[in-house]
Amino acid sequence: MFEFLPESRGRRVYLKAAGRLTDADYKALVPKLEAVIQAHRSMRLYVDMTALSGWSIKAAWDDMAFGLRHWNDFERLALIGDKRWQAIAAKAMDALSKGEVRCFPAAAAGEARAWIEET
Questions:
Q1: 59: number of CA atoms within 13 Å, CB side?
Q2: Is the pLDDT of residue 12 over 80?
Q3: CA 79, CA 30: separation in Å to the nearest integer?
Q4: Domain boundaries, the chain
Q5: Which of 14, 47, 76, 101 would bridge with 94, disulfide CB 3.0–4.6 Å?
Q6: Using an 8 Å Cβ cutoff, are 41 and 66 in contact?
């Protein structure tokens, strides 16, 4: 499931992803993110993945489809987690994205928040 964190405002969106994500989770999330993009023309997204255990196949597809559709709409994307695949995914996304993508270990979540807030 996705939880919007209280710091979310304007084009800055703070999420916590927990458990095993499903298609229903993305169906609830995507319209909210698209509304932010439509209102602000770009988005800074912080995703705490420390409690994430995985995705269903359909959810993984939903995630990829949203990312491809909005590739140039991310100004900054901070992924928070301690798993190696998260750091690898962030590097690959950063190389291909117009915006900046960084992976932060859980211990550096405050640094990630400061980076998202930076003007």
A1: 18
A2: yes
A3: 17
A4: 2-117
A5: 101
A6: no
- Residue 49, CA atoms < 13 Å, CB-side half-sphere: 25
The pTM score is 0.93
* Count of Cβ atoms closer than 10 Å to residue 85 Cβ: 9
Domain boundaries 2-117, corresponding CATH code: 3.30.750.24
Q: Are strands 43-55 and 2-4 parallel, antiparallel or unpaired?
A: unpaired
Q: What are phi and psi of 81, to 5 degrees?
A: 175, 160
Each residue of 33-77: pLDDT tens digit? Answer: 999 999 999 999 999 999 999 999 999 899 889 988 888 899 999
d(CA 60, CA 56): 6
Residues 109, 39, 114: CA angle, nearest 5 degrees: 20
What letter represents residue 74's amino acid? F
Token pair recorded at residue 48: 């705490």
Torsion of CA 14, 20, 26, 29, to 10 degrees: -30
CA R_g for the chain: 13
Point out which residues pair with 48 in neighbouring strands.
16, 80
